[in-house]
Structure prediction request, 307 residues.
Amino acid sequence: MRIAAVDIGSNSTRLLVADVRDGRVEELFRRSTVTRLGDGVDSSGRLAADSCERVHEALAGYSRELKAAGCERVGGIATSAVRDAANGAEFAAQILRRHGIAIDVIDGTREAELTFAGVATGSAFADGARTLVVDIGGGSTEFIVGEQGELRFNTSTNLGAVRHSERFLHRDPPTKSELQSLTEESTALLEQAIPAQWRGGVVRAVAVAGTPTVLAAVDQALEPFDPWKVHDYAITRSACDALLDRLAALPLAERREVVGLHPDRAPTIVAGAAILQVAMEVFALDQVVVSERDLLYGIALALSAKS
Prediction:
């Protein structure tokens, strides 16, 4: 069955077109557009009109592509920005009217479950060892622990690359005290949200979504972006520290010019990298492996299973 899966996140709007058979996802193509839907939601509690319009523009282009691909089933989800906004349900209804795409506004638990399912289409859980999945989004970050191929623990936190850029990083470039405040609050949040029994004993860690893929591209100086050089790339703790130091030291205009970093992700990559650094510290990780098998794959599986 040919599936079109849409993910409307706080920072980007994404599309996956894939053939799904017997629980296997064969990716045909994917698209990602930085739409910054979560801009200002943390402070205002509402989706801004210009942010919504950026998403509509992206979806208009995606709709043409998925129709040309002959997709048999189309659907999608919306995450942190939409579920946090007072006008989130209204926006989801607009998407159905304008683009014919039914969007489910899901909670953090469901987001974690779908991400786990997407990552599990690869080999991450093949040996049954305790594996952590970190999904760093614009408005939330999900932490999922699996063992023996089963989801054992998950939590969705209000750590996000957009949210924490707005909360903490006000100077250009950000100051050391701003970064320290971001790090300290993020560490305290994770230690409270994740019981010690799940913070220990992790054999491997998989990181998905925009932040880790961008950091993997920057670490390799990829130009142009190549998803197959990003997939399965290991970001070590020392590399994460060095990338954060490098990117945080640059004014935004110079950050936009960094090889491997899409200019539209430059405003939020520092906060995203800081969140990844905190996660590696809290879970005592030496490295994380980047995966392109993520939430979109989980959405595609869920759509294929619908009767």
